[in-house]
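Hi,

I'm pasting everything inline rather than attaching a file, because the server keeps stripping attachments. The sequence lines come first, and each chain or strand is labelled.
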Amino acid sequence: MTTVLQARGLTKHYGHVVAMDNTDFDLRAGEILAVIGDNGAGKSTLIKALTGAVIPDSGTISLKGEEVHFRDALDARKAGIETVYQELGVAPALDITQNLYLGREQRRKGFLGTVFRKLDKPAMRRGSARQMADLGIRVQSIRQKVETLSGGQRQAVAVARVAAWATSVVIMDEPTAALGVRETNQVLGLIERVRENGLPVVLISHNMPNVFQVADRIHIHRLGRRIALVDPNSTTMEEAVAVMTGAKSPESLGGRA
Amino acid sequence: MNTTRRLAAAGIAMTLLTGAAACGSKDEAASGGSGGDVTIGIVELNLSNPFFGTLEKATEAAATAKGWKVMKAEAKVPGDSATQVTAIENMIARNVKAIVLDPANPTALVDVVKKARDKGILVVTVNATLTPIDAADATFATDNTNAGKLIGQWAKGTVTSNPRIAMLDFDLSDGPAGGRHNGFLEGYGIAEGAPEIAGSALTKGTVETGQSAMENLLSAHSDINLVYTINEPVAHGAYTAMKNKGVESKVTTVSVDGACSGVQDVKDGIIGATAMQFPSKMGEMAVAAAAEYIANGTKPKSGLTDSGTVLITDKPVAGLESQTSEWGLQNCWGEK
Amino acid sequence: MTDTKPADAALLEQGEDRGGPVRAFVSSQVAGPLAALVLAVLVFSLTTSTFLNAGNLSLIATQSVVVGTLALGQTLIILTAGIDLANGAIMVMAAVVIGKLATDGNALWALVAGLVVCLVLGGLNGVLISRFSLPPFIVTLGVLSVLTAAARLYTDSQSYPISSDLLTILNDGPSIGGVDITYGVMLWIGLTAVLGYALTQTAWGVRVYAVGDNRAAAALTGIKVKRVLLSVYLTAAVVYAFAAWQALGRTPTADPSGYGTANLDSITAVVIGGTSLFGGRGGVVGTFIGALIVTVLANGLTQAGIDSLYQQVATGVLVVIAVAVDHFVRTRQTR
Ligand SMILES: Nc1ncnc2c1ncn2[C@@H]1O[C@H](COP(=O)(O)OP(=O)(O)O)[C@@H](O)[C@H]1O
Ligand SMILES: [Mg+2]
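And the predicted assembly:
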């Protein structure tokens, strides 16, 4: 199985605080990798380093075997890494199509596009309808304004946008934190669908049942570094939490992946 | 966003704001009241109308000619009495000897004026009166009712058959505006609501509001042949409306003010007659009253002292005293 | 939503928008203002004999152009959740600069100078608001105060009569079947069409709505929020320059004390036209109708012989209704 995104020895200091302490990271093609850890363990900092939002003090990142140096989030996005943020990243007054294409609108061909800057609305509608159908997201119409959707549907739109534009990796930082049980399940199903469509997913979550439900591997983060990488089929939830909180040493785990 | 930059920008914004506030109340007195130094206060309406600027400048010039110091303040918008109240409170605190006030509202300033007078400060109003009129020590103003009456009488003698009148007013709670309106009706010899009045509309005393009001009235009453206007900018705007409709030769317009631009409009046939006011004279009379009070404690005669009104027209009406626009251009106020 | 049945892409794309085009129009932003306009026109047509004729209707359009044009620029700014209290003052400043320069110079160059004045002042607002993230209300309030004084100082409170044909051309126009349609009205309609196109048919427009709707989300998708904001203030400035030209055409006098409430009047037109003060919703067509509504009220009530103060009452009631409708729309749809 090939490794898509890899990091070695990432370190980041904020004054005296060590947010990343020589940590490693590995994401394989076609997997859902859950990243768990206590508050302040450094999960978000790691993700930001991988998406160009934070520049590490030292360490290397490589994408599909090639070393990369992202200067900002746009660099990472150009390399095909897309992120769903915890805060709902959608514009409620715009419709689904406009949200999916926000910042990447398509223009008409010919002088209508070049001179009159006219949007190619039919093409964008086709594209977003296909994307929503591919992911099995059920809404009445892609012309619906996002504000008419439920919280779960909105997060689904955010996921759909990311999945539509990502060509190598999808990252989600606590995508279900604001959702109820039923909606959370819908989004988890969606994450699995993204994997089925061929993109690896990094899922940061606090919710252990969710993590064990969908993850192929679990990256356990503690005190700024990865202390274990486990297989959820051979590790229990209790064990993972114990390691995550420092109650148990990572060596004691059986199912190392 | 970097913090220092934000602070710098906030600083710029604050400077803009305080700069603007400073424009609203200039304070040229170093210190008031001590050691024989005399300071008087001048409180004006908003200076966007050159009439008030002329009045303020004349008052200030007369006061500085006497070697006095001057504290000045102006309302920010028409009717802005709150700024004037604050200004008078500040002047009381600075121990001014007299205050020359052009009140933005006839009643809102009565209390603060009483406070000043209780402190022994002479308060005279110019251009407009307080209600009751003896709330101030004296008033030097155009008798606006008389001004309205003059143009009303002239109109009566000019538009003799089938009068259809449009009234282009300013907020009638404003003292001068109400006086002119009533005076015009009295001079013309009709009552409020008389059938001769085709319609009336409120303006803001500016060219463009005069134009819109006249357009609306003409649209409803194409037979209008006499237009009363609160001031000359409104008359000018009304003329544009008539000209656009091609009825300007059939309509006679009367106004009040006597600004040089208005007198020019009389000369050009845009305005039939206007009642000229004398703002400089108001200011000078007010300063003379203050000088008398400061020198020997004599208060001026209470009530309204008319600073004079002259009818300006190039089509005189028999039995009604008037001056030509030539004379008017010699004696008008504001930029020529 | 993510059940096993795949959604049908063709069906999704067709967008069976509950109830078809009629329902879609009724729930669109323009329907409410248009209904109010039709109602006002009906009432005045039935109660006065002089309201409903071609001459008066063309007069209403002519009377709407100055505040209506200003309100187009204001709409762009309000769509980004901003506000411009200085637009009237910017227009007046441009008008007096044009008037003064044209008095002893070339009218065309004076007009260009007016455009430059608008761009500099709109740019100042835009930079302070976008680059330094200062609140639009405060920035434009400050600029308003400065400009009100500056216009007076620059002109010594005098107004300049305008005689140049170029400067007053917007008051001219062809007479179609005895009805005068001024070039100013045509320009107003043209500007509404161009801005309407830009807002609904280009990526710039989508981004303007996105920035006003959810700034954080817009930034996360890679939209350069500050650049969009600056472009909006500069575009509005160009529109204000057209408004200054409209003002000189309508009233051939560059008057520093004129249009003292044009800023609030333009906001009134925008709000009555259905654009949300919270940003992200509305558009220029609504504003066009909103400006007409305000003029119709003034014109109709004057003709009906009703005290002008009731114009302000009626306008105020409409503003409250518009804001209440907007509030209802936003809270109902935000589940
Ligand atoms: N921009 C920053 N400045 C200073 N300290 C930071 C910054 N970002 C993160 N940290 C610190 O680094 C540590 C890891 O934070 P974070 O990556 O947000 O953890 P997590 O997402 O696992 O809760 C925390 O102690 C946090 O306070
Ligand atoms: Mg975090």
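The pocket of adenosine-5'-diphosphate (ligand 1) is lined by residues A 14, 17, 19, 37, 39-45 (CB under 6 Å).

If the labels don't parse on your end, tell me and I'll reformat.
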